[in-house]
Amino acid sequence: MKLTNTDPGLLAALDTLLSEQPSGIGEMELMNALDKRYPELFPRPDLSDRLLLFQHHFLLRHHLYVLQQQLSEAGTGWLELELVTITKRPLNSSTLQQVGRFDGVRDYYLDLNNLAAETQQSVDEMISGFWKAMAAYQQAPEARQVLGLTGQESREEIRGIVRRLSQQHHPDKGGDPEKFRAIQQAWDQLKNQPDS
User: Fold this and answer.
1) Name one Pfam family in it (predicted).
2) 9 Cβ neighbours under 8 A, 6+ residues apart
3) Model-level pTM?
4) Which residue in 78, 90, 121, 184 is deepest, having the highest Cβ count within 10 Å?
C-alpha cells in the first residue's frame, strides 16, 4: 500500500505523544494533547458537529494506522489500536503475531475513499453502533464474572459453560430464577463480542 495523504509532522507528533504514554491513551485524550501541543497540525474540531468530528476521528485513525505500519516496517514498535485505548508497544514475539494479520478496521481507515463516502446518516449509524459496542465492552468483565470465566475461553467453550449453567439454574429444574436471568444476560452481553 502506498503511504499517501499523510502529514509527516502529524505522524512524528503522534509517535512522540504515544511514546510518552506507555500505558496507553484514549482517543479524545490524544486529540486534546495534539490540540494543546501541536494545534497547527491537528486543531480540535467542533464537537457538536458529528460529521466533522467523525472526519477528524477518521483522519486521526488513518494516521495512527500509517504510523503502525511504519513502526512495524522499521522494526521499532507496534501500535495497538483498541476500542478505547491506543498503546505504543515494542516489537516482540507477542506484537509480531499482530503484524500482517488481516484487520478489516485497519483497511477501512487506510482507505481515504471511505472518508469521502460517509454521510451524516451513515455517521449517525456508526456512532450509535459505537456506543452499543462500548456498553458491551464495559459490561464484559462483569458478564465473565457471572459465568465464572477467565477471559481465555473460546466462544464454543463459553457456549458450553452457559448451557451447563443454564440447565443447572433453570427455574423449571428447581434453580434460582435470578441466577438464571443473570446467566442469560451475561451471555447476551458476551455473544456478539469479537473476543468472546
Assistant:
1) DnaJ
2) 38, 41
3) 0.66
4) 78
